[in-house]
Amino acid sequence: MLHGILLIALFSCAAFYIGEAQIFKEISFSPMIIGIILGMLYANSLRNHLPETWVPGIQFCAKKILRLGIILYGFRLTFQDIIDVGVAGILIDVIIVFVTIIGGVYLGKLLKMDRDIALLTSIGSGICGAAAVLGAESTIQTKPYKTAVAVATVVIFGTISMFIYPIAYRSGFLGLTPDEMGIYAGATLHEVAHTVGAGNAMGTEISNVAIIVKMIRVMLLVPVLFSLGYWIALQAPKAGNASASKGKVAVPWFALGFLAVIGFNSLNLLPQAAVDTINYIDTFLLTMAMVALGAETSIDKFKKAGAKPFILAFLLYIWLLAGGWALSKYIAPLFL
User: Fold this and answer.
1) Better pLDDT: 125 or 139
2) Radius of gyration (C-alpha) of the chain in whole angstroms
3) Between vectors from CA 256 to CA 234 and to CA 210, what angle results, nearest 5°?
4) Which of 8, 145, 176, 208 could form a disulfide linkage to 297, CB 3.0–4.6 angstroms apart?
């Protein structure tokens, strides 16, 4: 197992090193995204030469280290963030997350696509990109290649938005005030990194609001994961799962850990330097999880998934652009 873990750690170090390149900083490509790309490159080249005894280490990174990373992700948030952004940001976040996930699952059925991929894509689009996909993956226990497909969709459309939003705002095309634009960006951009990148390009006033609104969306991952666990327990009897038919719910305990860490962080007991260090370590752990998932994803599996996941992600993207703008333009002012 140790050899497999060290292999993934080595790839993660490479992802961090590559992420220091100026071009990746400018487009806010986090080490996590670079990590899954490296993992997929490995999966489609040298993966077949990997000793079988190393495979458990890779799976350990994709499961156990992933959950630890999600728990420590709570050090990026505080409950004070909710108070700072007010009712407008919270209400719009809830609407965006609910409609995106429920609508995405329904569209997935209409497209007759894989249920897990549709669910992961919807959660990634609705909450916080790759981190949300990873959290949901740990709850539904799906195949790694499905996770990689979902991550690919949110990365593509989130990156496009990161460049479009500043241009659209500065041109006056959106017609939003700085506060409204901050809510719009935070409530609709896929990744935290995308929100930071686009926010910084539009100025501090917008960036501060956008990041807080985005972090509230991240907090919504907890109720979503618990609802997801309950929903899976209800669906399992229909699929003939005997253990689940007894009423057992797959409780995502790491989500409770995530919430507990947010509460601890809200107390401001640790110096900022310590929190920054924890966040750096957490990013490395999540990068390891992404590399491990990528290492289980070959081109053949992408072909198996087909074009439907990207069609679904595009439809959800249109909803985020149009629906998010309408909510920010007409609903947000009522509470600001």
Assistant:
1) 125
2) 19
3) 100
4) 145
Q: Which residue type does 209 have?
A: V
157, 184, 185, 249 from 206: Cα distances, Å: 21, 10, 9, 41
Sign of CA dihedral 197, 222, 145, 293: positive
Task: Reduce the DSSP state of residue 268 to 3 states and report it.
Answer: coil
Q: Would you say residue 89 has pLDDT above 60?
A: yes
The residues, any chain, with a CB within 8 Å of residue 32's CB and separated by 6 or more, are 15, 130, 131, 283, 286, 287, 290
Tell me how far CA of residue 306 lies from CA of 8, 164, 226, 263, in angstroms: 28, 27, 29, 41
Q: Mean pLDDT highest for which of 69-83, 96-110, 283-297?
A: 96-110
Instruction: For residue 332, give the DSSP letter.
Output: G
Full DSSP string of 49-61: GS-GGGHHHHHHI
Taking the CA atoms of residue 265, residue 266, residue 268 and residue 270 in that order, the dihedral angle to the nearest 10 degrees is 0
Does 280 score more than 60 pLDDT?
A: yes
Q: Where are the domains of the chain?
A: 2-330
pLDDT at 326 over 70: yes
Q: What's the mean pLDDT when you consider all of the chain?
A: 84
